[in-house]
Amino acid sequence: MEMRFLRLLLFLCLAVVTGPFTGCAKNYVTKRRQFKLISEKTEIEIGRKAKEEIIKEYGSVKDLEWQIYLDQVGQRIAKATDRSNLQYDFTIVNSEELNAFAVPGGFVFVTRGLLHEMADEAELAIVSAMKLRTWLPGTVSRCFKRPASFPR
Fold this sequence. Notes:
Blueprint lengths: L1 H17 L4 E4 L6 E4 L3 H19 L5 H16 L9 E5 L6 E4 L3 E5 H6 L3 H14 L4 H7 L7
Parallel strand pairs: 3-5
Antiparallel strand pairs: 1-2, 4-5
């Protein structure tokens, strides 16, 4: 009996000490509060740094007309997400590869090669929606808890 009491006391002490260092945030999908390892501000900063590295490595397309087109389509999709309050950033990467990807904080990248292969705006909207879904609430936290896993 005494050992159970000591374990309970130890657990309560740990909860009091570590409690302020953990975070709960609203899950925009379930509308419930859930444990979150990083704040939205940190998530955006991670994305901002990743964008700098991506642009440094691949470059971005400076064609204003294409950039406006991507941004308009992407922003329309972003308004329909559960994180519509986030300021999404859509960038055309200077690569012939057929690819699109996203990093934390609402940063979405579409390659020049993929844009040239798309038949219409609907295809771009589908790709944008898929990339926006990549970083649903909690996905970033799950990735940091299990670094070898990919977002689902």
